[in-house]
Amino acid sequence: MDIEVLRKLLERELSSDELTEIDEEFYKDLASFRKALEINAERHEERGENIEKRLYLAQLSLLQQIVREILKIRLHKIVDMAFEGVPRNLVGDEKKIFAIISAFINGESLSFEEEVEIKETEEIVEEKSVRSAFVDLYLIKVDLPKIIDEDLREYGPFKAGDLVSLPRSLGNVLVKREVADRITLSL
Asked: Which residues 6+ apart lie within 8 Å of 108 measured at CB?
């Protein structure tokens, strides 16, 4: 995996209404690539090779920006699929997100610890206690007006059922007030 592969995937996601088919190991490969960039940056820093270090850090920054866009697009498509009720081209924790959104749409009670069945694959997915290196996602339970974080940045307004990316500090407040559920997409 490299930046060019991710750039092409972003282009495919942008140009299609459907989820682009990706390898089942995509998120694991992505995490490995990110870790490799971090390790290389650290290695060059230890050697005093600042230019090489900055190149790896720049690649890491670009990686994070591209991945954030890919995830935003894929999440919007997953929400659309949940309303249709037909999952297609889902991999890894995307299946879990689809199941959670579908349950929410259908008014079903679904605990993150429960096992959920995805109809397309008839595969059981279990909740893992891992954190995303790239995105904190929150499923909004009620309509919310614009909200402001501690840095005075505005977010929203949101409608019940929206799946949004928010700063963790703001998301924690919404979860504590029971107006949102945290969804972790592991990479």
From this structure: 102
